[in-house]
Specification:
Elements lengths: L7 H5 L14 H29 L6 H50 L2 E16 L5 E9 L10 E2 L1 H4 L8 E8 L1 H17 L4 H15 L14 H9 L7 H11 L3 H10 L159 E2 L19 E2 L22 E3 L5 E3 H11 L14
Parallel strand pairs: 5-6
Antiparallel strand pairs: 1-2, 1-3, 1-4, 7-8
C-alpha cells in the first residue's frame, strides 16, 4: 500500500492522493455556500414542523409529538455540538503542533550527537633553541599508528638525553556520531514534508548545520600569490569529499519538492549557506536556486551542471572552481573571486558579475547575454564563442583576453573598457560600431569583418593586423602550428616593432 493510500480520510475512501487545498480554491466558497443553504433548509423545515405542532389545528399524536420534541432538542443542542467540535479540532491541532515541536527538538539534539573513542597516545618532549640562546622545553603528542614529525629546528630531548620514552596510554576523545546525526537529518526532512508551516525553519536548521560542519581542508593552500600552475596543481590534488552527514544534509536540501520551493519563493526566502566553506569539494547537490552563498569559500569546488538561478554568490571565493554548464540566470556574483574558474558552456544570462575577478577564467561557449560585467577583471580570460550580446562591460578589463568568435551586438557596452592585447578572429562585427575605437589596441586577422562591414582592403584596417586569415598549418616535422596564436603572442611581446606577415602567394 502506498503512502497516499493510507493517509487520512482520502486514503480510507480509496482516493490515490490526499486533497491538495492549494488547488481549485474557487471550490471552497462554493462548498461553503451549499452547506449554508442546506443548513438554512434544515432550520426552515424544523421551524415549519414546530409551527405546525404549536399552531396547527390537528392534534398531536404520540409519534408526532416525539418527533417535534427531538427536533426541538436538536435545535437547542446544535450550537453546543458545533462549539464542542471546534474545541476538539483546536485541541487536536495544538497536540499535533506540540508533537511536531517535540520531533524537531529531538532531531536537533541528534544533530549534536557525539560518541566516545579510545585511542593510544603519548607525550613527546623536545627543546626549541631561540636566537638569544634560550632553550624552551616543549611537549607534543604522538598518536599510535600515525606518522609523527618533530617541529622544524627542535632538539629532541627524549631521544638525545637518554630519557625514557613515555608509555602508550589510553586517551578518551569524542567525535561526531555520524549515524545518529544522519538519522536526525532524515527526521527533519520528514517533518518538512509533513508540515509546510515548519519547512523554512527546517531548511534554516540544515543550512546552519552545513555552515558549522562543512569545509574540512587538509591540503594546504598555495602561499602568497600563487601562479596558475600552482593553483591547478592544488585543484587537482587532495580533493576532499564532504563528511557523510553534511553530504546527506545537502541532498535533503536538493530533493525538496516543487511545492516547498514555491513556498520559499512566496515567503521571499533563500537558502542561507553564506560564509560556508566547501572548498575543493565535489558538490553532491545540484539545485541551489535562490541560495545565499555570499562570501562563501568555494575554491576549487565542482559545480558542474548545477542550478544557481537567482543565487547570491556576491563576494564568494570561486577561484579555480568548475562551473561548467551551470545554469545561473539572474544570479548575483558581484565581487566574486573567479580567477581561473571554468565557466565553459555556463548560462549566466542577466547575471550580476560586476567587479568580479575572472583573471584567466575559461568562459568559452558561455551564455552571458545581458549579464552585468561592469568593472570586472577579465585579464587573460578565454571568451571564445561566448555570447556577450547586450552584456555590460563598462570599465571592464579585457587585457590579453581571447574574444575569437565571441557574439557581440550593438547593445554590448564597452564604454571605458580596456581591451589592450585582446584578440579577435572569425567574427562579423558589422553591427558593432562601438568596437571600432578599440581595434588599435587589439589583434586580429583577415577572418574578421570590421564595423560597417569593412574587410582587409579597407583603409580602416588596423596596420598591425595581417590582411589574411591566420590559421593552423602543418610544420615540417609533421605537427601543427597555430599561426594565429604565434603571431598574437609575438605582437603582444613587442607591439611597437611588430610587422604583420605578408599573405602567402596562391598556388
Amino acid at each position: 500500500m502506498s503512502e497516499n493510500d493510507k493517509r487520512g480520510l482520502a486514503g480510507w475512501l480509496g482516493l490515490r492522493e490526499p486533497f491538495d487545498y492549494s488547488k481549485a480554491r474557487w471550490l471552497g466558497p462554493v462548498a461553503s455556500v451549499l452547506l449554508l443553504l442546506l443548513f438554512i433548509l434544515a432550520i426552515a423545515s424544523a421551524v415549519k414542523m414546530l409551527g405546525s405542532a404549536v399552531f396547527g389545528s390537528a392534534s398531536l399524536t404520540p409519534g408526532s409529538s416525539l418527533g417535534v420534541g427531538a427536533v426541538t432538542v436538536a435545535l437547542i443542542g446544535a450550537p453546543f455540538v458545533i462549539w464542542r467540535s471546534v474545541v476538539a479540532q483546536k485541541s487536536v491541532d495544538v497536540q499535533e503542533q506540540g508533537q511536531i515541536t517535540d520531533r524537531i527538538n529531538k532531531a536537533v539534539e541528534g544533530l549534536g550527537a557525539v560518541k566516545e573513542v579510545n585511542r593510544l597516545g603519548r607525550n613527546r618532549h623536545y627543546v626549541i633553541q631561540h636566537e638569544t640562546g634560550t632553550k624552551l622545553r616543549e611537549t607534543d603528542f604522538e598518536w599510535r599508528g600515525e606518522p609523527f614529525a618533530w617541529p622544524e629546528g627542535s632538539l629532541v630531548a627524549s631521544d638525545i638525553s637518554g630519557q625514557q620514552l613515555e608509555e602508550w596510554k589510553h586517551v578518551s576523545l569524542t567525535e561526531p556520531n555520524i549515524e545518529v546525526r544522519i538519522g536526525a537529518i532524515y527526521a527533519l526532512e520528514r517533518i518538512s514534508q509533513d508540515s509546510a508551516r515548519d519547512h523554512i525553519q527546517i531548511m534554516e536548521i540544515l543550512c546552519a548545520y552545513i555552515r558549522q560542519n562543512a569545509g574540512r581542508e587538509d591540503v594546504p593552500l598555495p602561499e602568497g600569490e600563487p601562479t596558475p600552475e600552482e593553483w591547478q596543481e592544488w585543484a587537482r590534488t587532495g580533493r576532499e569529499y564532504l563528511r557523510l552527514d553534511v553530504d546527506v544534509a545537502l541532498k535533503v536540501i536538493e530533493r525538496r519538492g516543487e511545492d516547498r520551493k514555491r513556498l520559499e519563493r512566496d515567503k521571499g526566502y533563500c537558502l542561507g549557506l553564506e560564509r560556508v566553506s566547501l572548498r575543493k569539494t565535489i558538490l553532491s547537490w545540484r539545485d541551489l536556486t535562490g541560495a545565499d552563498l555570499r562570501n562563501a569559500d568555494l575554491r576549487g569546488a565542482d559545480f558542474v551542471g548545477a542550478r544557481l538561478e537567482k543565487a547570491n554568490l556576491a563576494g564568494a571565493n570561486l577561484q579555480w572552481a568548475n562551473l561548467e554548464k551551470v545554469e545561473s540566470r539572474c544570479a548575483q556574483l558581484g565581487r566574486a573571486k573567479l580567477r581561473g574558474a571554468n565557466l565553459g558552456e555556463a548560462e549566466f544570462q542577466f547575471a550580476n558579475l560586476s567587479r568580479s575577478e575572472l583573471q584567466g577564467a575559461f568562459l568559452g561557449n558561455g551564455d552571458f547575454q545581458g549579464a552585468d560585467l561592469s568593472a570586472a577583471d577579465l585579464e587573460a580570460s578565454d571568451l571564445r564563442c561566448a555570447n556577450l550580446e547586450g552584456a555590460t562591460l563598462m570599465l571592464a578589463s579585457l587585457k590579453d583576453a581571447h574574444l575569437g568568435k565571441a557574439r557581440l551586438d550593438a547593445a554590448t557596452d564597452f564604454t571605458f573598457a580596456f581591451l589592450g592585447g585582446a584578440a579577435l578572429n572569425f567574427a562579423d562585427y558589422t553591427e558593432v560600431p562601438q568596437l571600432f575605437e578599440h581595434l588599435s589596441d587589439m589583434f586580429g586577422d583577415g577572418s574578421v569583418k570590421l564595423p560597417g562591414g569593412h574587410g582587409p582592403q579597407h583603409e580602416s584596417w588596423p596596420a598591425h593586423w595581417p590582411r589574411f586569415e591566420l590559421g593552423v598549418k602543418p610544420s615540417t616535422v609533421g605537427q601543427f602550428v597555430n599561426c594565429y596564436e604565434k603571431e598574437w603572442r609575438k605582437w603582444q611581446a613587442d607591439p611597437e616593432t611588430y610587422v604583420p606577415p605578408e599573405a602567402p602567394e596562391e598556388g
